[in-house]
Amino acid sequence: MSIILIVAIILVGILFIFVEFFFIPGISIFSLLGFIISGIGVYLSYHHYGQNTGNWMFIGALLALGAVMYWGYKRTQSKKWALKTEIDGKVNNENLSAYAVGDKGIAFTNLRPEGKAIFANDERITVYSIGSFIDKDKAIRIIKIEHNKIFVTQID
Predict the structure, then answer these.
(1) Do residues 49 and 66 make contact, with C-beta atoms less than 8 angstroms apart?
(2) pTM: predicted TM-score of the whole model, two decimal places
(3) Domains, the chain, ordered by start
């Protein structure tokens, strides 16, 4: 068996380990196959070329694996393979200072229990009904405001 073929087998095993760590993490089949294939390559070098060549192939395989892992880690940290987008949206970021307990408005959508309502400033705002559902276009009143939520009830 050729030494080039043995080196190719070891490199295929290292490639499988690299793919496992940096492209499809969590599966562990590729890394297991990579270690098995690399081990077979090192075993073949011991078997066909003796202990001295086998030791050099084993040390070379470990150094190559370390170098590839270091390169992959540095590449990942530099964000060349990672997404650069970040989510900067916020939930419940409405300014509720214009609203007070007792304000009256109209349900813009059905409140089941969450929906939209319009108050004096003609701005649609998310509100929550207390108790029962409130149909669209019904008169409502603010009962309480807490934790950036407006709670309303229907006016009869």
Answers:
(1) no
(2) 0.52
(3) 3-77 (no CATH), 104-154 (2.40.50.140)
Check residues 29 and 79 and name the one with the higher pLDDT: 29
Cα 14 from Cα 27, distance rounded (Å): 16
**Given its phi and psi angles, is residue 132 left (phi above 0), alpha (psi -120 to 50 degrees) or beta?**
beta
Distance CA(18)–CA(32), nearest Å, equals 11
In whole angstroms, give the CA distance from residue 135 to residue 156. 12
* Cβ count near 11 (within 10 Å): 16
Question: What DSSP string describes 54-84?
Answer: HHHHHHHHHHHHHHHHHHHHHHHHTTSSS--
Look over the chain and give the mean of its residue pLDDT values, rounded to a whole number. 89
Exposure string for 66-87, b = 16+ CB within 10 A, e = fewer: eebeeebeeeeeeeeeeeeeee
pLDDT in tens, 11-24: 999 999 998 888 88
Bridging pattern class, strands 139-146 and 104-107: antiparallel
The pLDDT tens digits for 104-119 are: 999 999 999 999 999 9
Q: Where are the beta strands (DSSP E) in the chain?
A: 104-107, 114-118, 124-129, 139-146, 149-154
